[in-house]
Amino acid sequence: MAVKKSQTAFKRAQKHIAHGVNSPVRAFTQTDGKPVFINSGRGSEITSIDGKTYVDFCMSWGALIHGHSDADINNAVKTAVNKGTGFGCPTEAETELAELVKEAFPSIETLRFVSSGTEAVMSAIRLARGFTGRDKIIKFDGCYHGHSDSMLVKAGSGVAGARQASSAGVTGASAEDTISIPFNDIELFKKVLNENRSHVAAVIMEPVPANMGLIIPEESYLRSIRKITESFGVLLIFDEVITGFRLGFGGAQEYFGIRPDITCLGKIIGGGLPAAAFGGRKEIMDILAPEGNVYQAGTLSGNPVVMAAGIAAVKKLKKKDFYAEMELKTERLQAAFGRLKKTKVVSLGSMFTLFFGGFKPGNFSDVMKTDAKKFRKFHSCMLRSGFYLPPSRFETCFISASHTERQIDLFAEKALKILD
What we know:
This protein is of the alpha/beta class. The protein has helices spanning about 5-15, 70-85, 90-105, 115-130, 170-175, 185-195, 220-230, 250-255, 280-285, 305-315, 320-335, 365, 370-385, 405-420; strands spanning about 40, 45-50, 55, 110-115, 135-140, 180, 200-205, 235-240, 260-265, 275-280, 345-350, 350-355, 385-390, 395-400.
């Protein structure tokens, strides 16, 4: 595979950008290769600066549910740019997108837009502490909620492949206020919450963890957590930065019938541009500044160009049968891998993960037992064959509306040859 231009570009980047990348997982340290530098994308495909075209199952880490360079989103962006790239003032676009988000997520009575999932989670946690007057947060091992200090404790995503479970620079006090426990163990959850009942402000969770691969919650697990948190007066925060608009128009909370107190959203609501949001019950959101005593601000929050992209992206999700058609593609891929014994394919909505082991993981400890070497080999082989997958075994693959049945079949056909 000719990647000379990408290799040269990476060497140049390493001279000026820390380790050559602006987000660690892009460095391909969990693979046998080096980063592929991308020149363009269209639909379900991306083309590198070396001229190689790949079928993309990363899709900007799930953000591009409609595919690359979607015409409707592009046109909305062009119209907005021609009016101005940003004002630091309110615009009607912010309200329009907020109305669309509220339509999808009834648990969100009011919200705030921010620019990243990390920012949304950081703000939601501060809000929960301010509302309850308590300090501690419960999270789950392997779940990644961005890189704010208190969330880098037993985190997933790129952190899972680091030398340490957390990160240098995180103070002991920050770590002490975060309790991380295994996912899918309701009895342990009850015990830990009971032991810390007067100190816990909130429980934050990916309702379907997607930063240690895709982990499916056991039956009644989420309902039990909702019931227990309510009985203890503890806020429940759903981090739906990934699952939001992926499992359906109303995300995981619609899929499982759970109503959290606060929801964090991202990825899709920017239409491929940097946007995120946090929102929830009005009585909680009302303690934000300027009238409340919990401060949160951002010059680029609600940027008009990003809002325009988000409006176009979310409106397209309301198309009749949009999600049914997406799920058929995932089911097609799942069925193709059905005969494998040493590789488990886990899928839900338009997301899937190949776990290299003879079992279906239920938590982060299980994921760590999967075969890292086999993943590295598989990733390299698929890349050479023209399929771009997330360069980490702790990440989830994504299908977009632009993927074709033929591409799904070719992916499965090639993967099965490698895995046989």
